[in-house]
Amino acid sequence: MDETRDGEGSSQPVEAKTKAQGMSHQSDVLPCDQLRDQVIGNQSSHTQLMETLLHLRQTVDDCITQLTTRPPQLDLPLEEQRHNQATGEQEAFLRRVVNLLQSGAMWGLGLQAPRPTLGPRDDAGGGQQAQLSRQLDQLVHQLSHLEVAFVSHDLSNRGIDISAFERSKFQDFKTYQGDKYHEDKNTMGFINLGVSENKLCTDLMTERLSRSDMNHLEDALLQYSDQRGQPFLREEVARFLTYYCKSPARLDPENVVVLSGCCSVFSALATVLCDPGEALLTPTPFFGGLVMGSYLYSKVELMPVHLDSEITDGSARPFQLTVDKLEQALLEATLKGKKVRGLLLINPQNPLGDVYSRDSLEEYLEFAKRYNLHVIIDELYMLSVFDDSVTFRSVLSMESLPDPNRTHMIWGTSKDFGISGFRFGALYTHNKEVASAVSSFGFLNGISGITQYKLCRLLQDREWIDKVYLPTNHSRLKAAHRYITNKLKALKIPFLNRGSGLYVWMNLKEYLQPCTFEEELLLHHRFLGNKLILSPGKTYMCKEPGWFRLIFSDKPLPLKLAMHRFYEVLAEQKRDLRVKQLEDPQKE
User: Region Disordered: what ranges (predicted)?
Assistant: First the structure.
């Protein structure tokens, strides 16, 4: 399908309704909204603001003390010296935060007046509010990542990297876990449209997993199993993929390895195919979670093949991957001294939703063969193509692969069946040596025997899958997608209109001024302040700021509430941008 490009202009979005008393809430994550309300509300709140700012300043001072008192580390390898070299920069950053705290405190006490607002009378107070709002948003954004800059006395340099990555990538999810929305128990909790989970068919899946055939125990399920996975599960996975991937020949169970999730499979593949410091090419934007497995675990770098949102020569649609772009990225990596060992593809693509045609897939595989590159193809969303006009073609459906020994396919049940908590991922590769090497990771990342049995029974029930689950899932995905895209069209927000996956890739550049990644992150934090989690484009290594991924595979009630919160944030953001332009008309 062609993408919808509604609203390329700067049309004002539909104004959100005034927050009802029952809908208003204060963020447990970001105190900036709370601080703004207190400062603007009345003079008596200045004391509370000052106390908060002083508390934050003490946090910064403690961090500076920790940075400057770390014991010296001598004769470190060059790779590790960067931690010490960064200390000065971290301290300078913290000093800047202190200055911002001082300015905020002076304003809160009435000792320093904000710049006068240029504009209509009804915006006179808005200028002060917008200025303080942006200062506090920036302050909270900086302080929210402050812990990442801490230098540990206990962790190794590698441990510091891992800790910093975990905090920067998963802090929002941790906050969400502690304050989840629930339609009865916690209506003011976080709604998570940032993590790709399918919640539309939990009723069907719960019913199926509760049937008596799932409740089976035997000694073998309670003991260690083959590291590749239980033979009965690998046989069923081979049959399942033969059928749903439309393989021309029956797939061999000996080529199947199952581990605890597709990221575990990818991490194992990256480890056995690449040496530390080597690289894999991957088109961007792409699912950023793979960075965790490729770099922190196996020290393999993902080299971006940057795709453009604008249609250019050689491309027929936005963010289109071409062989020319692959060639250019490979050349650039080589010039940087990087040894590229493979190409990582996601089909259907995450976060774009594109489905590769058979011709395109063959071109990418031929490119890889020319340069003796492995190809890892993640087909995690292959059964989540809900538009009847879109045809998905698995790499396993091809009559003959250009280089079968270097082609490796990954699939799991997390997205297509909405059971991410099962932690199941499968590898299919024609290369027995690769399968054997990856299977050794079952020692660390294996799946419990009971879970493997339940998965086997689920995949065996072809009649239920074909007649009940898939038709219902596709129908609900289609309805949820239609609801979200209609809302985006009403707001004149451009987005890619695809018929696969659980997400919409949308363009919020109109709400950034200037259009930078820092402003993108500030908008992300503004969504968080309204108890809504979305995924900013930088998470996916998108080279253009302003893009966000929105998950639509949630139930109707939380989805409707999420869009209400979405409207509120964009209306507030639009108002602040208008005030900012009135204050400084030179900046357009």
Answer: 1-27
